[in-house]
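Sequence in, structure out.
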Amino acid sequence: MANTRPKSLCTVEGCGKPHLSRGWCSMHYSRMRNHGTLADPVKKVWPLADRLWPRIDKNGAGGCWIWTGAINAQGYGAIGVDGKVKRVHRVVYMLLVGDIPDGLHLDHLCRRRHCCNPDHLEPVTNRQNWERGFSPGAVTIRDDRCARGHVYSENARLRPNGARTCRLCEDITNSARKAAKKEGGQ
């Protein structure tokens, strides 16, 4: 036989959730158990300055201000601001220098991602920031010579995809191919 007894509801006025224990729903029961009151607990929000400045070590090598707090997966300092996680170097820059111009990124001139010294940060385009980095593509684009040592400024050919090739190296490769084809044909 099915249970036809009506389910009881939380006794807190205006709640309407199903009863769990002692006349309360699970939320109100947890509040009473954890906080001793049915009221919504007020979470203390620490001011940004009280969370930011104590975690910055201004005695880093080379004048870096090293962030000693949380670091995100990319190696940048992270801090909560207005319910969102922000990068510390951007927060410090905006506090001490001003807004970051639209479309620009902050480049760490010291190459340390967890540094937040505004003197070590420069607003640049995404392309400039990438070119200053150490990814294989950025290193290659800064290089002025091909793999065989020929100077690009005198011998470069720009391909449609943006890649550079060396005309002298192409000539050497083509000559070797022709010679191999000629030997194979006789």
